[in-house]
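Task card 7
Instruction: Convert sequence to structure tokens.
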Amino acid sequence: MLPGDEKVVERCLRGDDAAWETVVNQYAKRIYNLTYRYTSRRDEAEDLTQEIFIRVYQNLKSFRSESGSFQSWIMKVGRNLVIDHYRRTRRYQQAAGSEEMETMNLRDDKIPSPQRVSEQSETSRFVAAGLQALSPELKEAIILRDLEGMAYMEIAELLGIPEGTVKSRINRARLELAKLLTKRRAQAGLQV
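Output:
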């Protein structure tokens, strides 16, 4: 738990708007990044982020510091809503390629050349498509570890599974993602 989280939660429960604003400011970027990496669409990620904060606010009284960190609790609420969203929308998903995927924000220390920008954009599309092709369990594990930077123990706590299972899922996800990306690059006629 970050220093002061428990006091901020108590202030929120007493109706302190400034405390709620602190919670939103502290966790908004992390929640948005989580939702964006699952949906690959800004509009959906923004909507899901709002839904998550509404759910957090409505259920704030159920947070118990003895059960884990506030950050883990918020991430668990977010994860559950993302799963619900996935279940609701997967039967309505359009065929792949029907909508241009947004690119991830890849940065260079210097101003990249137009060719480098094009390569980064292509790489982003391949990675985003590869992530979408993974099973939900593998996708979740690799996003939390490699993109969100969470520790194995944090992921295990969040998902409610043993740390060894987390490591296994991450390993399988990385291998499967590498195979998918190699195959897609070959199909696109790019160097592997």
